[in-house]
Each structure stands twice: as C-alpha cells, then as structure tokens.
Amino acid sequence: MRLAATAAGAAVFALVVSGCSLSDDPGDFDRAPETVGTDLKAADTSDLQLPLLVDPLELVEPGWDLPVQSAGSTFLSAHAGEDSLTYSAVNTKGTELWQAERPSGCTGFTVTADGDTPLAVLTDSESTTDCDEDVTASAYDLTTGKKTWGPVEVPGPLRGPGTVFAPEDAPANEAVVLDPATGQPVEESDGADADGVSRLGEYQGLILSIIGGKLVASEDGKSVWEHSLKDNDWDADQLAPTAGAATGEGFIHLDAGGGVGPVFDRDSGDLLDDDARGVARDANTAAVVTLGKAGLTVIDDLGKNELPVSVPKSVHLEAAAGGLLYLREGGKLRVHNAATGSLARGYKADGSGVVAIPDVLTGEGLGTLRAGDRTLLATDRVVEESGG
C-alpha cells in the first residue's frame, strides 16, 4: 500500500489507557506449541478511531495482553488467562499459526534470529508460577512453532533485550546471554576477564557488552564495533538498555542515566544521538526518529533533519509510521509530518471513539495497533465495501 503524510489542521485526540493483571494460580498443561492455522475473524472497530494508514485494511484481534514482538510478517504475544499464559503467533494474513501455554508469571519472551530464521524464545518454570525460580528457556521457529533448542536452564527470568537472563535485581555482570543459534551461554571474547564483563543485550544475534571500559558489540564471537566509555562520559554502572528496548528495529537505545542516553545504528555502531529520551523507527520509510535535547530529529539516508517542533519533557514519542510522528502529552495525542514537523492529519476528521496508535508495523504498513487495553493487527485483507 502507498503511505504518505497528509498535512492538515491540528488534531488532538483523547487516549484511553488501561492495564491487565496476571494470575499466579498453578496450572498443569502441555508446553509444546500446537499448530493452529486458523484465520481470525475481522474485529469490530466501530468504537475506534483508526489511523488513516490502515483505514482500508481489515483488522483482527488476537486477544493479546503482553507487548508485541515480531520478525518479518509474523507477530508474537500472549493472552493472560486465570491460570496460564497462551502465547500465539499470527501473521499479516490474519492467520493464527501456533499456540503454546506457559505458567501465568512467565511473561518473559523475546523474538530473535538464527541467521535468516526468526525465533521465539519463551521462558518456563515447572516449580513456580511466577517464573522466578528454576527458570528455563526454549526457542521455536517463529512461523512454524517447531522447537530449535531447549529447555535450557538459565539463572533467572528473562531480563532482555533479547536472550539476556539474570536473577531478580542482579547486576549486569551476573547476566547470561544465550546464543540464539544454539541456546548455549555466550562465551567471553577477546580474552576478556569474565568478572569485568557486563552483558547489556542481544539484538538479533549481536551481543552488546561492557568490557574493560568499552562498549563492545560482537557477533559470532568477533567484535563488530566498540565505543570508549570514558571518551563519551558514560558510567559503566549506569549504562543500561532502556525499558522495553526493541531488538529488531535496526537501532540500539541505552539509558545513560535518568532515562536519557545514546542511540546506535545496530550494524555500523554509528552514534545517531547521544541524549535521546525517546526513539522510534518508521518501518515504512526506514527513518529513525529520536527525541532529545535538540527536539525531534529524523535520521535517514539523507542525513539528520531537526524538526521545528516544540517538545517539552511532558511529551513522549509514541510511534513513527507512514511518514508521520505520533506524540503524546498526558492523555492527548497529536500527529506531525516527519518531513516538515507541521501538524498532520493521521485520522479522519469526523472520527470518534478510542484512538488506535501504531505499534509494531512492517514496511508495508501492516501490523499492530494499541487502542486502550486492546491490541489489534492490521492484515493484508482489504475491507469489503458494503453494498447499498
């Protein structure tokens, strides 16, 4: 589908936000993924304001309660029941591919890759429902649910980003990273002393660590890029992945203190921004958008474009999609053109209802939306025009 930012007058929308709770009741069930292959029915969106970029598409509602992760055209999350979590993988055709159950507290999961094969890594515990003891991890082909390795014993719950595991409240130097290809703990590289290594994250096979005063990214046991902590005034005890950091969007965002920190290009290690408090990638345009001291900056193949948009600290960057930026301040949402910074129309002018915000999208503009406590998936199925 063709996506474009449509400039228009100011549009501010009220948001509805709510959470969900998980049960800690024990459950006895089969952990093995079960093939489903069912096409989900179209969701009722009559009470929602949908972004214009998905307006012609049919949406489905997988019933997910946890944040969504994806690779390619397949999306993964879980529904929280009374006694268990039901993980499910759904593709952009709206087909539920497979399901797997886990104890109610095993909310730690990640999507990573072994080469070109996307993997879903789920945690488990057969002794506790809160998944903080006797934790194991297993990997499954994201599209088929076929196991590739596991269960592997890990030192604690999934910390992330990626396949990083550690006991509750343990420092980063006690974290273990599993190799996505084998499920085995990643060994130290370059002769580093294990006591001096802090594992920060795993990003689609790239391991980010602090080793000997340097931030080091390695892959297949070899250093790919590095940065000096001292030269950049980064404190090794403070540097950490930002909360909810993404692993498959081509960038790495770290918190250097107070929720603000550097953003790197995942492959080259180029420092895209050194003081970002928010970052998003527009899958449609491949641009990375940062929110920092300089305001909003759009970074693409043409360079950096600082937008003339006022962004006080109360403003949060919610999403970037289809050449539009979605900014939230309190319970209000406004949309801007990513090229000019001007206010844009991201929704129908006469719309009403709960505002759905783009969440995880593919380059074709398909993917998930958040609308209050609902998660919907925009498929490649086009809404049929009603006759009349």
What's the topology here?
Layout: E1 12-14, E2 34-39, E3 48-49, E4 57-60, E5 69-71, E6 74-80, E7 84-91, E8 95-103, E9 109-114, E10 117-125, E11 135-141, E12 147-153, E13 164-165, E14 176-177, E15 197-203, E16 206-211, E17 214-219, E18 222-228, E19 240-241, E20 251-255, E21 261-265, E22 271-276, E23 278-281, E24 288-292, E25 295-300, E26 303-306, E27 315-321, E28 324-329, E29 332-337, E30 354-355, E31 357-361, E32 367-371, E33 374-382
Parallel strand pairs: 3-30
Antiparallel strand pairs: 1-29, 2-8, 4-33, 5-6, 6-7, 7-8, 9-10, 10-11, 11-12, 13-14, 15-16, 16-17, 17-18, 19-20, 20-21, 21-22, 23-24, 24-25, 25-26, 27-28, 28-29, 31-32, 32-33
Q: How would you characterize this protein structure?
A:
The chain has 388 residues and is mainly beta. The strands form 9 sheets. It has a 5-stranded antiparallel β-sheet with strand order 2-8-7-6-5, with no helix packed on it. A 4-stranded antiparallel β-sheet has the order 1-29-28-27, with no helix packed on it. It contains no helices and 33 strands.
* Strand element count: 33
Shape: globular
Q: Percentage of helical residues?
A: under 10%
Distance between the termini: 26 Å
Low-confidence stretches: 1-11, 16-26, 190-194
Strand content: over 45%
Radius of gyration: 21 Å
Which structural class should the secondary elements be placed in? mainly beta
Average pLDDT metric = 90
Tell me the major beta sheet.
5 strands, antiparallel
Strand order of the largest sheet: 2-8-7-6-5
**Number of DSSP helices?**
0
